[in-house]
Amino acid sequence: MDINTIIAVTNKFLVEEFEANPESITPEANMKSTLDLDSLDYIDMVVVIEDNFGFKVNPEDFQAIVTFQDFYDYVANRVQQKELV
Fold first, then answer.
1. Neighbouring C-alpha atoms within 13 Å toward the C-beta of 25
2. Does the pLDDT of residue 68 top 90, yes or no?
3. Digit-coded pLDDT (tens) for 8-37
4. CA 75 – CA 3 distance, rounded (Å)
5. CATH number of 3-84: 1.20.1730.10, 1.10.1200.10, 1.20.120.1760, 2.60.40.2080?
């Protein structure tokens, strides 16, 4: 799966599941403040990621994610690792 597909799928579920404004989802935007995420939202996000991309997410992985670009890179790296197995 290429990065453009990952970004498209990710942005689609952010808009659908978290009612995000599509225009506010930019690579450099702060993900937590843009989506107004609380701890329960992160749990929901883990489930959505696992369903859409087929890999297990460690909740502590989110500590290193600040921007949407960080999030896209995280998903891309995990998908790539999964495809290599």
1. 19
2. yes
3. 999 999 999 999 999 999 999 999 999 998
4. 9
5. 1.10.1200.10
